[in-house]
Every structure is written in C-alpha cells, then in structure tokens.
Write a structure and sequence with these properties.
The protein is an alpha+beta fold and about 300 residues long. About 55% of the residues lie in helices and about 15% in strands.
Length: about 300
C-alpha cells in the first residue's frame, strides 16, 4: 500500500468503526502502523494486514509485489519505535525485521495464514521483509501497575529503557554464540541488535529532551533550591548523548568485534547508562509523586 487518498479513506473508516473495515478488506485483520519518516521526521500512518505469532504481530513489506520496499519499511529501519493501532487498542512497539532462517520460518507462517503474500513474493525478486512488532509492555512485576503520576510515567519509561539494554546484551550473546558455532555462515541477529540499540538511543534522547524542556523547568517553579541538582542532571544528559553515540558505534562493529572486548565495553556503557537512570529516579520520583499524568486542565 502507498500513502494515497485511498489509504486515508481506509484509515478514517478503521478509526470510525473500532478497527473494522469493509469493502476489499471486510473480514480481514488490519492494523494501522504509524512510523517516523526516515528523511522528513514526520509521522506517516499506513493500514497493513498482519498475522499474529507468539504474542507479537507480523507485517510484511510486500508493496503488492513491487520491485522496491514500501516507504514504511525504510522508515522503521531509521526509526524503530512505531505506534500500532489494532481495533480500539493503541500501543508503542519496536519494529524488528527478521533475518536469515528466522525470516524464512516467519514468512512460511505468514503464507500459511495469508497465502496472498506468497503470490506477492513470486512477483518480485526481492525477499519480502518480515517485520516483528514487539510490544513495549514491561515484564510482569516491573514498573508501575498503572500510570497515574508523572513519577509513574518516568519510572515506566526507565523500565522500558532498561529492558532494551537487556535485549541488546542477550542478542549480542546469541550473535557471538552463533558466530563461534559456524564461522562459515554469517550470524543473522545484526538487524535485531541494531533495532533495539537504535530504539533505546532514540527513546532516551526524546526522554531527556522532554525533561530538559518541560519537567525540570516545571519542578523548579516550586523547588527553586534544586537548580544545581537539575543543572547536574542536564549536564549528565549531554554526557549520556555522547555515550549513546558510542553505544551505537560499538553495535555497528559487532560483526568484526572481539567478543571479550565487546562484552567488556558493552557492560561498561550499560552500567553508566543504568546508573544515570538510578540517579534520576532518586532525585525526581519523590518530587513528582503527586503530579498527575497526564496533566489535567487548570483549576477554575
């Protein structure tokens, strides 16, 4: 599908009828995927078919069998964090393209449920990308049960950020294990590691930008004595930005990295990033425990 007036009519019908769409798509499961433009940085929403698999959703960059990947696929490579709408539910996810044997297995799963994707694959020489939409829900028992305050929201974001770092660590271990088991076959977790690393870095940057622009000035209105504290945290944000870039550069070289050197450096960076989150929580959570989220209208 392309971003046309037809797509917009499908999007409007989807949202007006709790995810139900008639016409060509009647009886089919559709989702709305909102990505961030790889070049423009603007949001783009497209309706897509999907297949459920092990709690995740699978989407395919079929472009109806055209020779080029659809625009949304290039967007998720640049910005892995996406917004998903299914029925009346909306949530954030990380878009992770499958590689190698995993892509083959998942594509077989998709075709078994929706045979039309097999026709699209036969119409083009490019392998159709299979993208896993991994929901951003925290593990059971992690994070606040319900987000009622700004402190809850910050803690929720921090829990998710720590989860992405765990993803990166686990996937690099799997990468090195596979590389060591068969040096003649290239490992196929490179995109998976990259997407989680990129999602972490982009989310942390957005989080810090929001704190510097809104959270810190708002709290200072009521707690001016914390000016030095917030200046130190803002300075840390600049340090974390440099560390984020170093982390991305490290991941980019995982294919040729010495495993022990890589593990040591990843552990060091992870410890620094986690310590920063710990310091933010110790400072901010007590101050924001009574600030509602989202903020309500001003009192009359």
């Amino acid at each position: 599908m392309t971003d046309t007036s037809f797509n917009q009519s499908v999007i409007d019908e989807f949202r007006a009828h709790q995810g139900k769409v008639g016409g060509w798509f009647e009886g089919s499961e559709l989702l709305l995927l909102t990505t961030t433009g790889a070049r423009s940085g603007a949001p783009h929403t497209v309706p897509l078919g999907f297949v459920r698999h092990d709690g995740d959703l699978l989407i395919v960059g079929s472009n109806m069998g055209a020779a080029k990947h659809p625009a949304w696929y290039h967007n998720v490579l640049a910005h892995p964090l996406v917004q998903v709408e299914v029925g009346t539910e909306q949530y954030q996810a990380v878009a992770v393209p499958a590689e190698g044997e995993r892509r083959e297995d998942l594509f077989e799963r998709v075709v078994a449920v929706e045979p039309g994707y097999g026709d699209y694959q036969r119409a083009t020489e490019r392998p159709l990308p299979v993208v896993v939409l991994e929901r951003n829900d925290p593990a059971p028992g992690e994070g606040p049960a319900e987000v009622r305050t700004l402190a809850d929201k910050i803690l929720q974001v921090h829990v998710w950020l720590r989860g992405q770092l765990r993803h990166v660590a686990a996937e690099t271990e799997a990468y090195f294990a596979r590389r060591g088991a068969d040096e003649t076959a290239p490992p196929t977790l490179g995109l998976q590691i990259r997407q989680h690393c990129l999602a972490f870095c982009q989310a942390l940057e957005f989080h810090h930008t929001g704190e510097d622009a809104h959270v810190f000035p708002g709290v200072l209105t009521y707690h001016p004595h914390l000016k030095d504290v917030f200046e130190r945290l803002s300075a840390e944000h600049r340090t974390m930005a440099r560390l984020q870039k170093a982390l991305a550069d490290l991941i980019a070289d995982v294919g040729s990295a010495d495993p022990e050197v890589f593990r040591t450096e990843l552990a060091r960076m992870t410890a620094q990033l986690t310590a920063h989150l710990d310091r933010e929580e110790a400072t901010l959570l007590p101050l924001l425990a009574d600030v509602p989220f989202p903020p309500g209208p001003p009192a009359a």
